[in-house]
Amino acid sequence: MKISYREALREALRDALASDPRVFLMGEDVGRYGGSYAVSKGLLEAFGPERVRDTPLSELGFVGAGVGAALGGMRPIVEVMTVNFSLLAMDQIVNGAAALRHMSGGQLHVPLVIRMATGAGRQLAAQHSHSFEGWYAHVPGLRVLAPATIADARGMLEPALACPDPVILFEHVRLYNLEGELGDDPSAWRCDIRSAAMRRAGDAVTIIAYGGGLLRALEAADQLAGEGIEAEVIDLRVLRPLDTPTLLGSVRKTHRAVVVDEGWKSGSLSAEIVARLMEGAFYDLDAPVGRVCSEEVPMPYALPLEEAALPQPGKIVAAVRTLLGKT
Amino acid sequence: MSLGPVPYDKTSSQALLADMLRIRRLEEAAAEWYGAGKIRGYLHLYIGEEAVAAGAMPCFHEGDDVVATYREHGHALMRGVPMNAIMAEMFGKALGCSRGRGGSMHLFDAGRRFFGGNAIVGGGLPLAVGLALAAQLQHEARVVACFFGEGAVAEGAFHESMNLAALWKLPVLFCCENNLYAMGTALARSESQTDLCVKAESYQVPALRADGMDVVSVRETTQQALARMRAGGGPAFVEYRTYRFRAHSMFDPELYRDRKEVEAWKERGPIHTFSARLKAEGKLTEEEFLALDARAMAEVAAAVAFADAAPFEPVSELGRDVVAQEEP
Predict the structure, then answer these.
(1) A31 closest CA partner among A14, A44, A46
(2) How large is the average pLDDT for residues B249-271?
(3) What pLDDT score was predicted for residue B1?
(4) What is the β-pairing status of strands B144-149 and B114-118?
(5) Segment holding A143, helix H or strand E
(6) What is the Cα–Cα distance from A143 to A214, expressed in whole angstroms?
(7) Which of A202, A296, A301, B30 is deepest in the core (most CB within 10 A)?
(8) pLDDT tens-place string over residues B41-70
(9) Residues A272-313: pLDDT tens digits?
């Protein structure tokens, strides 16, 4: 069956709402409008305004209310329109949801899922396009997910809701229209939220990517294959806690790695991954680990500028060639 | 605000007095043991404000939820958190009510539905809204007590929470303890509108005002607000006008207020004024007062001994309770 990433997310929401009365969805324009990226379209009609709940423009308030509702025994799914807007709610996420279990000596836990759109590629400029996944991945107490495939878009919500801790689920804006085949049986999308996944096998280099970067990494790998370079592509899937063993296992095989991250380099998730490879596989590396990240500018509007700011397949290919001494 | 007759019998009246004494003696001991280096970090004392927690907390049922601030020793105690566990938490011990992870500012007791101990000003209000939303969605009758200081009304969290609670008719009692100073900033120096009830009413949240130095006024006003809420009336707001006799924290030299102002408020101290009224009404003798006080001091002494003797959490346990033990 052909299905889009957006529809896969929606069907996952529909399943969650149908199967657990504790689950409800709230956020700005998730109901009547159908979701700013149309993910929740039709769910209001199916589940009613109590469970598909439009909120005022109060990110701090409704994300905090999600934390409180989780404490009160519900399983809230809170949609934040973009990761840029989530900064208004960061106090409730970082000082609240992430800390409450530890701060209470293990008495409380916050089974909350926060979904948000992330990333650039739609010319939305510097207040709707950034990738702050790394900031959330920095915080103990949170679990951070980045579905990059149709199957993960369909499958990650269920284990996220089953997780007793707060989970942030990043949906990349370039992926919503992505279409692909997905079987009807739940086995087609059943997944864990612990592991990275190898999306392409290879022996010459490991390309580590996530979210919107995965497709670009795969595209680069196809180009490289044309040159006789077989790249292994690892999809992080889970940004916190990182599946370090899978990364190290691949790099021990390929001896080279390039990290693709739409976040900026400085103080980033890519920096963390490079550090872990250095800590765990230093003597297996034949070259310094490469990085392809966003340029360190607030995301510009104009198409040529935006494209220049982002990791592109060509940049990934070039980084791999450099590692292999084929410049 | 004139203090009228106490509308409770001798037993109930003395119970209120006993509770205020327990909070007062607990906090005096906390200050003392802070000085001795056994309690560290920040310690925010409630001395002077005891009538609010003592009068308001018993109005809530066991099944209700309570959200408090970093000045919450009294609220925790009134909620039934054992004094031993509170003191042990301040001492940072494993037998503390947050296993030594929280300290003075983060007292928790999930079993008593005491959701902390929030040290981000205004941070508890959205939580309270969410707890009330859960109650509403579960069709349960519980209500949420949300304590915060007047400083929080300057935060966006206050305005967003009032709006959400009113919009969705959620059972939150917003208990605003107006002690006139947000740390060192007087209300009039931080708010264009200093009438806090007007702010609440602007969100269609009914607002009441209580004399926070009078445990009777606190109790009656809280009951009045709650009666309406329990009948399905949506949120309410109560401003308790009170005063903090001690510094904001143990690091505060109190440069921002006049000693004379502090002394004038002390004249209205909730414990001695209430005791005097009870004595005048024949509901308390000096001997009974001394006995209640001695009992409070004995409870505190036992709590200090318990806390001092309790072990620290082994350092090997540092990483527990960050996330669930079981992988999802």
Answers:
(1) A44
(2) 92
(3) 47
(4) unpaired
(5) strand A143-145
(6) 20
(7) B30
(8) 999 999 999 999 999 999 999 999 999 999
(9) 999 999 999 999 999 999 999 999 999 999 999 999 999 999
State how far the Cα of A233 lies from the Cα of B309, in Å rounded to an integer. Answer: 56
- Residue B270 has a pLDDT of 98
What domains are defined for chain B?
43-309 (3.40.50.970)
Q: Which of A133, A245, A243 is nearest to A195 (CA)?
A: A243
Which of A23, A92, A104, A112 best probes binding to B when mutated, by most B CB atoms within 10 angstroms? Answer: A104
pLDDT at A198 over 90: yes
In this structure, what are the phi and psi dihedrals at residue A246, rounded to the nearest 5 degrees? -65, -40
* Contact indicator for B97, B86 with CB cutoff of 8 Å: yes
Residues B79, B85, B89, B92: what is their CA dihedral angle, to the nearest 10 degrees? Answer: 180
* CA pair distance A120, A127, nearest whole angstrom: 10
Among the listed residues B80, B76, B19, the one whose alpha carbon sits nearest the alpha carbon of residue B50 = B19
Q: Is A11 on the interface with B (CB under 8 A)?
A: no
**H helix or E strand, kind and range, residue A67:** helix A59-71
The C-alpha atoms of residue B3 and residue B18 are separated, in whole angstroms, by 19
Query: Buried (b) or exposed (e) across A257-276, using 16+ Cβ within 10 A?
Result: bbbbbbbbbeebbbbbbbeb
Tokens of B205: 């949240």
Q: Which chain A residues in 98-117 lie under 8 Å from chain B, judged by CB atoms?
A: 100-109
Confidence of residue B2 (pLDDT cuts 50, 70, 90): low
* Model pLDDT, residue B232: 84
Q: Which of B121, B131, B312 to mutate to test the interface with A (most CBs of A within 10 A)?
A: B131
CB within 8 Å of B206: residues ≥ 6 apart = B200, B225, B228, B233, B236, B237
Is A172 among the catalytic positions?
A: no
What SS3 state is found at A179?
A: strand
Look up residue B112 and give its two tokens. Answer: 């008593």
Quick one: how far is CA A30 from the chain centroid? 20
Q: Work out whether the CA dihedral B166, A40, A63, A262 comes out positive or negative.
A: negative
- Cα of first residue to Cα of last residue in chain A, in angstroms, is 43
Domains of chain A (ranges, CATH numbers): 2-188 (3.40.50.970), 197-323 (3.40.50.920)
Overall average pLDDT of the B180-209 stretch:
95
Read off the pLDDT of each residue in A236-264 and give the average, rounded to a whole number: 98
CA count, 13 A, side-chain hemisphere, A129: 20
Measure CA A246 to chain center.
18
**HSE toward the beta carbon, residue A105, CA cutoff 13 A:** 27
CA neighbor of B85 nearest in space, from B320, B317, B304: B304
Bridge partners of residue A82, in order along the sequence: A117
Beta-carbon pairs below 8 A across chains A and B? 162
A252 Cβ partners below 8 Å, 6+ apart? A281, A284
Nearest C-alpha neighbor of B327 from the set A265, A313, A192, A260: A192
Out of B101, B129, B164, name the one closest to residue A103 (CB): B101
What contacts B64, CB < 8 A, 6 or more positions away? Answer: B113, B142, B143, B144, B145
Strands B114-118 and B172-178, by their bridges, are: unpaired
> Which ipTM was obtained for this model?
0.96
Residue A78's CB: how many other CB atoms inside 10 A?
Answer: 32
* Residue A128 a catalytic site member: yes
